Amino acid sequence: MRGTLLTLTGAAAFCFVAQANAAVIFEDNFDSYATIGDISPTWSATTTASIVTDDNGGNAILMDGSAPNGANNTAIHAITELKPTATESIKLTGRIYDDGAGNKRSAIGFRNGATPLFEMGRYNGLLDTSYAARAVNFPGANPSWVQLSTEGATEGWHLLEAIFTLDNVNVTIDLGSDGTIDGTLDIALDETLWAASPGFVEVRMGGPSGLSSAGGGLAYDNIKLETIAVPEPASLALLGLGSLAFMRRRK
């Protein structure tokens, strides 16, 4: 019993060290806004947004997508230029409410103009009822709108997550926000080119490239941008040894 306790303690200590340098850059649950006008200047002013109720009795922002092409269909939050490093990854999460209707173009993502840009959500140019993601003008990768889940559009609150490292972006979707990953996508990046590539300067929600969404938009909630520490190789090896010791102890 004592040996097992020590092993678990060591593993827990590793987890603490690996996350010690995590930092939240921006987070918004929209509950502090009494009217849609209150979102400015945190988010750019938009004529197609409204406050709705989320599944916990708080607020969410509905980007209805009815505007023609242009900035009024996209809410933008400016950030200091940001890109992954050898020691820190970038993590973007957000929840969307989808009524399951077709013909939608609405997403959450990053931009620095058009170079680079990243979006995840609904895009009717790929499949009318598909969840998808795209990474364009990134170092070493230019996939445009790749299907994220084999599931069609589903009514309910869904959790989207993207984690950027120097050589990869991993995108996941949790339909129903129940803790089960229902779709995942990995996009390889060229880490040697990041130094010369601009970082992200905007977090966005709404119409990709300001496009309208004839089938209605999505509601957005709990948008969070953070950096997370990249575990050092020595720490990973330590965790592996701890796990092996724990397995041996159980035997």
UniProtKB/TrEMBL annotation:
Q: Which NCBIfam families match?
A: PEP_CTERM (TIGR02595)
Entries under Pfam families matching the protein:
PEP-CTERM
Q: Which InterPro entries match?
A: Ice-binding_C
Superkingdom to which the source organism belongs: Bacteria
Tell me the protein's name: Ice-binding protein C-terminal domain-containing protein
Segments forming domain Ice-binding protein C-terminal: 229-251
Range of residues in the leader sequence: 1-22
Q: Which UniProt keywords apply?
A: Signal
